[in-house]
Specification:
about 550 residues, mainly alpha, hpI Integrase, Chain A, 3 domains, three-stranded antiparallel beta sheet, about 50% helix, about 10% strand
Amino acid sequence: MKTRYLYRNKHGVYCLRFELQSKPKNTYRQLLISLRTKEPRIALQHYSTVMPEVYRVLCSYSDSLRLNVSEAPNVFEVKRTIRELVARIVETEKDPSISKLMSQVRYRKLDNYLDATFESLDLTESQLMALKRKLSISESRERALVTSLTSHSTTTSPASIESHPIGELVDDYFNFKRKSWGTRTATQALSNLVRFAEIINFEYPSAQIDGKLIQHYVNVMTKLPKNAGKRRKEVTTTNSELVTKWWLDLSVSHSETVLGAGGLEKHFSDIRMFIKWLHERHYVSLDFSKHLEIAKPKGAKFVEKRAMYDTAHISKIFSSYIYGNTLRNREAPKSYHFWAPLIALHTGMRISEIASLEVQDVCYEDGVLVFSVNDEWKSDELKKSQFSKSKKTKDSLRNIPVADALLNAGLLEFIGKRKSGLLFDDLNLSDTKGLGNTISKWYNEAFVKYAGIPKRNDKNTPLAFHSFRHTFTSLLDKTTLEGQPLRRNESFYVTGHRDDSVRTQTYNHGSYSPSLIKSYIDAIDFGFEFSQLSYEKFQTRKVER
């Protein structure tokens, strides 16, 4: 039950506490009305009984302030009226089950309506009267509600709980959410949901799920090894009880490294949404999603933010063996080795956006060559594949002007006469780990090692391929032409971020200038001369003897 107006003073006595607007000085005065008990059960009983009457008194007082009624009661009269109501209730013996009479849903609505009444001082008179009619509850309806509720057992839930095997509900939830997920997201979510169902038992009835069961799931998860998913593939039994026992045994029998806070959060985030979905559809009695929160040490974060590259980092990256004259021993050069870091630095594109570029995505808009970041495959072969080109958000769909540094490095010559297909046709896309997994693995594990690029900056913040995006965004915001920075809406547009300003959301209707954006991109000072870079030279490198 929501009891935001229930207060316990320093002596342990429960009271009703409100803040009412005082008419003369337009200030607020606090009201404390004693419920004359130190017992939580009795306090909730009195609170449940008295709130409908108190609620009507407060609404009437709020209306009188809004309508400026000359004979409106003052704060002290309201306090006296409420005190009399409370005294009448408190002095009357009630059945102990009365605290269960008002459903949680009903009181949540009452409290929300009450808050809305106090906050809606700018409503017109007609709107206020309509709200008052909506909030009014007649005496007869109130008595009917009390009579109806008292006829039920005090342990009966106000909402009808429909129980189903948890495995069946996992299927229903996945089918419900599948259309809004990409392939990778759906695969990961299904894996996490199935593990949840297996740990608590596929046949477990949803109506019996409680906090203790959720805590059991958490306890098992926190003790599982990192490779638990691979081990599960070796289990062939379909008996739900045996599978549940297998997970429990694994959590207590191994001596390997367990999942860290970040890994647990990836699992729990999917299960939290599933639990909320179950509660909204009355498959479980309460929302237990809060039981899946992970306690973090003060100042700790699950995912460390990436740092931007400084001038020294950029110089070292683009002076490395990839962009030099020598082919590293046993190196297997790929086109994306040369282009991916260069495109990321000059566009701020995400790694998956670069990996999913097609030849047709390099096109002209208003006479300016752009990279079209979209969510639909153009090539027939890719349309029929299992790969998804979906983007992070709808704001990710954009056209980014191609910088002169990319054109001078030979981008158009690299495309040549090709009409379709992936821009990097020697790139192996990954469906299960994201389209950019191959580029990420090459750059973050191999390239930085052989090129001597640090994985953390001087402040111990991680550096990775995504740091190119941080670098581009930061430097674009600092770039000015004739003393003026790029307009806010166009800066947000080119980086694929959402601009929540009222002006942009209301009045901007896609009015982006590719030529203006390109002039700012070309003006970014990275502290490095890119004119020496050439894709033709990259192709002709030889092993040094």
